[in-house]
Amino acid sequence: MSAEQWQESRKRLAGAKRWVIKIGSALLTNDGQGLNRSGMQSWVDQIAALLAQGHEVVLVSSGSVAEGMTRLGWKKRPEQIHQLQAAAAVGQMGLVHAYETAFSGHKRHTAQILLTHDDLSDRKRYLNARSTLRTLLDLGVVPVINENDTVVTDEICFGDNDTLGALVANLIEADLLVILTDQQGLFTADPRSNPNAELIAEGQASNPQFAAMAGGGGALGRGGMVTKVRAATLAARSGADTLIVGGRIENVLTRLRAGEVLGTLLLADKEPVVARKQWIAGHLQTHGELVLDDGAIKALRDGGRSLLPIGVVAANGRFSRGQVVACRNQQGELVAKGLVNYSRDEALKILRTPTSGLEQALGFVAEPEMIHRDNLVVL
Ligand SMILES: Nc1ncnc2c1ncn2[C@@H]1O[C@H](COP(=O)(O)OP(=O)(O)O)[C@@H](O)[C@H]1O
Ligand SMILES: N[C@@H](CCC(=O)OP(=O)(O)O)C(=O)O
């Protein structure tokens, strides 16, 4: 691939609306010596500039264990899981405090979100986390996400916030996942042990060659490049591109936004919405069904609109929020499939209900749509 082609792909980054930025332990903690506050201030300043340019940013930040070790005066990373968990709990306070302080200079609020992989594999919790994150983004708040180390142990063992970053990119349908790390990007081999290794500028996330080049990580984060390349393939499932890049490069985020060729860009094969719709269309097993009136079918087919409760005349079978349901016309023909925002019991309460009546009928409003158009495949 030519340098001009790389340049072209990088120019497109300015158009990526929603960014997930993951910062690893090695960077955040000056290789274990407390929090790297000047680095943090610089990334925060750059993120504030991205927000001012109309981008949305979710931060996935490691560093709690390393900061906890410093606060507790521990020189060596403990072996015992419960000690690591304790360090993470202590360090998380320092981490969020540092972000809150740095962002307050830009008059931006931050929000702490602690997640586990399980939260994201349970459809209901997935949708709840998604609604909260979307609301925070709408409010202009910067969510700061880390693993909930008190209740899970896999990640502090494997240093796998890279995977969490990818799952968050899936969750909020991000356009771009940026993984900031202590190397310039993905090299043909681990540059720590192979001085002839070359930096890869660009490739498809699905290319299996990259996984073969990636090795393990350092003493702090420990995920290494393996988890970063795997994260790129996960992010690609919802259509997000991934950039693995050196966080110590001066003004790295600003320069990426300006189209400079830095780090390694691993491209998704499909656009985000297309990828998600294919996933929905491929779901043979639907849970229950909604029966739509003719007006709703027309809005879906001709207008590419979301399905609103007012156009739903019946809800059959059993389904819960976040499952794929079949949408049929009143003659029983399948017209669409989609991820439903309400359980069957809730749906029954809001059949034929206008948006303005949802709160009275339900006592709350999860979303105004029964199925959002991004989560709907019209057949
Ligand atoms: N092919 C590769 N290219 C670049 N770095 C690699 C490669 N294989 C292994 N690594 C190692 O991965 C490390 C980064 O991963 P890690 O220590 O987990 O960082 P982070 O804390 O940012 O997640 C690098 O310091 C490097 O030694
Ligand atoms: N939750 C832990 C995760 C550690 C982790 O994943 O580290 P890294 O591989 O550097 O991103 C922490 O904050 O220390």
Automatic annotation (TrEMBL):
Q: Does the keyword Cell inner membrane apply?
A: no
- Segments forming domain PUA: 288-367
- GO molecular function terms here? ATP binding; glutamate 5-kinase activity; RNA binding
Listed under catalytic activity are: L-glutamate + ATP = L-glutamyl 5-phosphate + ADP
Q: Which InterPro entries match?
A: AceGlu_kinase-like_sf, Asp/Glu/Uridylate_kinase, G5K_ProB, Glu/AcGlu_kinase, Glu_5kinase, Glu_5kinase/COase_Synthase, Glutamate_5-kinase_CS, PUA
* Binding annotation for substrate: S62, D149, N161
Listed GO cellular component terms? Answer: cytosol
According to its UniProt record, the EC number is 2.7.2.11
Keywords assigned = Amino-acid biosynthesis, ATP-binding, Cytoplasm, Kinase, Nucleotide-binding, Proline biosynthesis, Transferase
**SMART domains (UniProt xref):** PUA (SM00359)
One GO biological-process annotation of the entry reads: L-proline biosynthetic process
| Broad class of the protein's primary localization | cytoplasm
Q: Where in the cell is it found?
A: Cytoplasm
Enumerate the CDD domains for this protein: AAK_G5K_ProB, PUA_G5K
Give the similarity note.
Belongs to the glutamate 5-kinase family.
| Classification via PANTHER family | GLUTAMATE 5-KINASE, ISOPENTENYL PHOSPHATE KINASE
Q: What does this protein do?
A: Catalyzes the transfer of a phosphate group to glutamate to form L-glutamate 5-phosphate.
Q: What name appears for this protein in its UniProt entry?
A: Glutamate 5-kinase
Native source organism of the sequence: Thalassolituus oleivorans MIL-1
